[in-house]
Signal recognition particle receptor FtsY (Buchnera aphidicola), 424 residues
Amino acid sequence: MSKKHYNNFFSWLWRKKKKNDNKLEENQKQNNHQETQKDKITILKNALVLEKKSKTIKIKIKNQNAQKLINNNQKKISKIDQYSNKRLDNQEQKLSTTLLNNKIQKNIKNKQNENRYNNVFQSLQFSLKKTKNYLEKKIKKIFFSNQENNDLFESIEEMLLLSDFGVNTTNNIIKSLKKEVYKNNTTDKSKIFFILKKNLLDILNKPSKEKIKTNQKKPKVILIVGVNGVGKTTTIGKLAYKFKQSGNSIMLAAGDTFRAAAVDQLKVFGEKNKVPVIYNKIGTDPSAVIYDSLQAAKAKKIDILISDTAGRLHNKQHLMEELKKIVRIIKKHNQSSNLEVTLVIDACSGQNTLQQVNLFNSMISVNNIIVTKLDGTAKGGVIFAISDQFSIPINYLGFGEKIYDLQEFNKKKFIEILFEKNNK
C-alpha cells in the first residue's frame, strides 16, 4: 500500500470516527435534552404538587385561623352574653327590689296616712267631746226619756240657744222643724230627732261663695286675718304642712310686725316645714313685708304664699283700714282672683264670732273661715250660726297643738260625731 493510499485510509478512518463521535455526541445531547425535559416536567409536576399542597395547607391554615377566630369570637360572645345576662339579672333583681321597696314604702305611707287620718278623726272626736256630751244630755232628756214633755219645740229651742246657735238660727231651725213635723203628721220623738239632724245638715250644706280656682297664675296668696288670740300663726303652720304634703311649694310672710313672738313662731314653723319665711324688723309697715314676700314668691315660682297679719279687734276702724291697704297691694301686684282671704275665729268666742265675721267680711270680703279651739268649748253651735247667716264656707276645723291637728270640714261627719250615739 502506497503512502498516499495509506494516508487516504487514515483520513477516511478519522473522518468516520469523527462522524461517529459527532453522532454519538448528538445522540448524547438529545438524550441529555430529553432527560432535561423529563426533569423539567418532573420538577414542574412536583412544583404543581407542592403548590397544590401549599394551597391546601394555606386553606387549612386559613380555615384553622378562621375557626380559631370563630371560636375566640364565640368565647367573647359567650362572655358578653354571660355578662349581659348577669347584668340583666342584676338589673331585674334591682328593679324587683326597687318595686318591692316602693310597694313597701307605699304601704307604709298608706298605713301612716290611714293611722294619721284615724288619729286626726279621733282627735276631732275628742275635740268635740265637750259639745257632744252637752248635747247628748239635753237630747236624751228631750227625745229619748220617759219624761213627759208638754212643749217639745220649746225644749229644743232652749237647747239650741244654750248651745250657741244664736237667736236667728234657732228660730230658723224651729220654724223648719215644725213645718216638716206637721207635714209628716208625726209625734214620734225619734222621727222628730231624725228630722232635726237632717235640718242641721241642710244648714251646713247651704250654698256658699265659689271656691278660689287653683289654676291661676302663681302664686296663690292666702291672707290670714282675725282678732287677737284666735290662733292665726299656729293655723298658718298647720296649713303650710297640709299644703306641702299635697306637693305644693310654700312661702310664709311674717305680716304681724307688731308682735316679736309672732315672727319667731312663724320662723319655727318655717323650719319644721322646711319652707322659706320672709320677715322684717318689728314695727315695719306690714304692707311692705307682704309686698316683698309677693315679689320673692313670684321670683321663686312659689305655688302658695301664706301671709300672717297682726291680730286686731274688728271694731278698731284704723286697724281694719290697714288690712284694706294690704288687700289693695296684693290685688295690684298679683291677680286679684288669686287672693284668698281666710278669717280665723275662735269657737270659744260664741256669738261674738258672728260680729267678727260680719265686720271683716264687710271690710275686706272674706272667702272662707277656719274655726279653731273646738276642743275648748262645750258650745259648738256657732258653726251652724255662721253657715246659716253667711255665704262663707268653713274650710277647716282646728284643734290641738300638733302640726297636723287641722282637718277639712266634713259636714256629714261633723253631724255624725255630734249625734252618733245619742239615740241609743
